[in-house]
Amino acid sequence: MNGEGQPVSPPPEGGAEETGPGATGDVARERPVAWEPLEPDYLRSVIGDLFGPLSDSYFRPRILRLDRLPEDGPLILAGNHSGSAFPYDAMVLDSLMYRRRGMRAEGKCRAVYEKTLSTSWWMRPFGIDNFWRRCGGVDMTFDNFDRLLERGERVLYFPEGVPGIGKGFQRRYQLQRFSTSFVLLAARHQAPVIPLYSVNAEWVVPFCVMVPWVDRIAQRFGVPFLPLPFGPLALLFPCLWYLALPARMTFIVGDPVDVRSIVLEEAGGDLDDADRPALRRAADRMRHGMQKRLDRYVERFGGRPYHLRSYLRAWRRPRGRRAWMVPFTWVWAFVRHARDRDRPPAANAVHRVLRDWDLFAYYLPGGWLLLSLARRLRRPPCGYRGLSKEEQRKREGQFLWHLKERPLPPR
């Protein structure tokens, strides 16, 4: 990894069996090449110029008891997810902690996420190529999680998974079933679990409910859930997929949980004998404990989810900040920012608008079709014309990243 966080070798272009472009056979698998997709320069730019000001003006987040977070790992930061919305809660929390640590690459938490966020381009913020990995994320697999803790990383993890995002407003603040894998890994690595409680993020999209049979149909098309009645409208107008109301997010750092002791107690004192039922009981105890504390924090901090007074104060800030108060402007800002890093400056104001003509599709009925067509017809950085399928997949980041095959560089 060089000073700007660029890959020390090309990223993988295939699945779990490959270690690099054209890699075949046992020799390639025995010699995995390190890869660091995190781009500190891009991350500093997107947070400093875009997401930081947007977050401060619109979501107005605060994080309490941050001084209780250990500076080093291995540890797991376990947060509750908001329901039925794009994962703005995770983005706000991650960027907030990163800014508090001076936006140093070595201080970045490694967020693990479901592979759908990379393999489906509409699950990346405004379709930006490889966004999650470029900002420090790692694909969520059991082996990857294990290797991150072995490296001594601070891992940001949402144990509810996709069901936490897709639980709907009718089940707000109701923690969904926790995965047993993170309980087992925390016990094995003796890694403390630090709960991170999110309050008010449920109000980002408060007018959606989830219907299980509708979600099952949506999953056949690569969409993890389809909130009603808002989801079908978002399928018609792409800009609605990223809609967010100005909920003032509050994050509270909880007390460390000794998960190893819980697992040992449920497994009769033998970690090697911790079967699935024992791990399930340990995960349920962890969830019930977090639920009780979350309920108390919701009662304390959730009375005014939008806090209109602070929102109006944000309007009085310098005029340049007011653009962030309208979510429908975000797509232009984020996509232009990403594209401008790979193209020359616009000739004039008219050229600056017209060269991103495809972004108008976000506001048109049936715009997803036009966006997909534009991605095929336009050249990089606006599309993929002229690229091979492997080059396109590499640019998009549309592959499952296995640390076993493509490990992170030594710390």
Q: Secondary-structure blueprint of this entry?
A:
Elements: H1 25-30, H2 40-59, E1 62-64, E2 75-79, H3 88-100, E3 110-113, H4 116-119, H5 131-134, E4 138-139, H6 142-150, E5 154-157, H7 162-165, H8 181-188, E6 193-199, H9 212-219, H10 230-236, E7 250-253, H11 259-266, H12 276-301, H13 308-315, H14 330-340, H15 349-354, H16 367-377, H17 389-396
Helix pairs in contact: 2-3, 6-8, 8-11, 11-12
Commentary on this structure:
With 411 residues, the protein is an alpha/beta fold. It has a domain at 37-309: Glycerol-3-phosphate (1)-acyltransferase (3-Layer(aba) Sandwich). The protein has 17 helices and 7 strands. The protein has helices at residues 25-30, 40-59, 88-100, 116-119, 131-134, 142-150, 162-165, 181-188, 212-219, 230-236, 259-266, 276-301, 308-315, 330-340, 349-354, 367-377, 389-396, and strands at 62-64, 75-79, 110-113, 138-139, 154-157, 193-199, 250-253. It has a 7-stranded mixed beta sheet, with helices on both faces. The longest helix is centred in the last third of the chain and has 26 residues, at 276-301. The radius of gyration is 21 Å and the shape is globular. The termini are close together.
What are the defining features of this structure?
globular; seven-stranded mixed beta sheet; 39% helix; single chain; 411 residues; Glycerol-3-phosphate (1)-acyltransferase; alpha/beta; 17 helices
